[in-house]
Design a protein that fits this description.
single chain; alpha/beta; Aminopeptidase; 11 helices
């Protein structure tokens, strides 16, 4: 049996690797980042499943869902805020309104939750995932898994004693399932200078699909023909380095207009990337060979359904994807640009 490193030892390994980490680029060049294997090790012992269980209980106690505008969403928000405050953050709610029914023009008020680190606001890294579920179910893979990944990365930052050169905004978006309204509002309220000062957006939407894959976005479009703004390739490269260093098979996935919260950032010319473990697409024979699981079946058979419960998740995959997110977040948080 291989003895696992404790949290303190892992934190020391990460901190030491960061001492020599700096880079300069006109737009974005994250460099090698911290020790990818140490980062993955850190997330094999963290409480990711605790967050999934908490959000499942919240859905169970609130009509089976955590949709925007419901008591389940409010309870989910309070849970995230409590976790952030206990770690030393000062979370804020960023409110917005949207039309739930365009024919009747019913106005719904919702909010994002934002928590910031220290660091230069001239090079801000926004790390986010949507907090809401669909009304048909609790949304544990979609997207309590992404919430757990972002939240645990934020908590790990504090525990590991990471002092970022660049400000990191950990964001939990509202009303994604209604039309990406929360992330769109965040980008819309940025001034031109603030948009230019946003170094990157990292997005996590579904990170624990039960028949899933490890995928990250095709930043330069070399695989799918539609890349992101300048700097998105470098984000893709960061994720590639993490998975390669840990000998974990992974592949790229395309950006799709209107698909997830990265969209508003892309449209504003902000480099973006992120993680995705799959929804209603069928697993190919090649993917089953690389990742295990069952070829010919959906990557997530409970996508947008009532059965998207905690039993619909792969916790080992969630650990790996969260490690990738944390590695990319640190790499970008310590980067500089000329």
């Amino acid at each position: 049996m291989t003895k696992k490193l404790g949290r303190t030892a892992v934190a020391i390994l990460v901190a030491v690797s960061l001492l020599s980490f700096a880079c300069t680029a006109r737009r974005l060049e994250p460099g090698d980042g911290p020790d990818a294997r140490a980062v993955l090790e850190a997330f094999t012992t963290r409480g990711l499943s605790d967050h999934l269980e908490a959000l499942q209980r919240i859905a169970d106690n609130n009509d089976g869902n955590r949709a925007t505008g419901t008591s389940g969403y409010e309870a989910s928000a309070r849970y995230v805020e409590e976790q952030l405050r206990a770690a030393g953050y000062t979370p804020v709610r960023q409110t917005f309104t949207f039309e739930e029914n365009r024919r009747n023009r019913d106005q719904v008020e919702s909010f994002n939750i934002l928590a910031e680190t220290g660091g230069s606001a001239a090079n801000t890294v926004v790390v986010g995932g949507h907090l809401d579920s669909v009304r048909r179910g609790p949304g544990i893979n979609d997207n309590a898994s992404g919430v757990a990944a972002v939240l645990e990365t934020a908590l790990w930052f504090k525990e590991a004693g990471i002092t970022p050169a660049n400000r990191v905004v950990f964001a939990f978006w509202g009303a994604e399932e209604d039309g990406l309204y929360g992330s769109q509002h965040y980008v819309d309220q940025l001034s031109n200078a603030e948009k230019d000062g946003t170094l990157a957006n990292l997005n996590v939407d579904m990170a624990a699909s039960p028949n899933g894959i490890r995928s990250f976005h095709d930043g330069d479009g070399s695989d799918f023909g539609d890349g992101g703004p300048e700097g998105s390739k470098e984000i893709e490269d960061v994720f590639f380095r993490f998975f390669e260093a840990n000998s974990l098979p992974a592949e790229t996935t395309p950006f799709e207009a209107g698909d997830s919260d990265y969209d508003a950032f892309l449209q504003a010319g902000i480099p973006a990337g992120g993680l995705f473990s799959g929804d209603e697409e069928k697993k190919s024979d090649a993917q089953a060979q690389s990742y295990g699981g069952t070829a010919g079946q959906d990557l997530d058979p409970c996508y947008h359904r009532a059965c998207d419960t905690i039993g619909n998740t792969d916790t080992e995959l969630l650990q790996e994807m969260t490690g990738a997110l944390a590695y990319a977040t640190v790499s970008l948080a310590m980067a500089t640009r000329g």
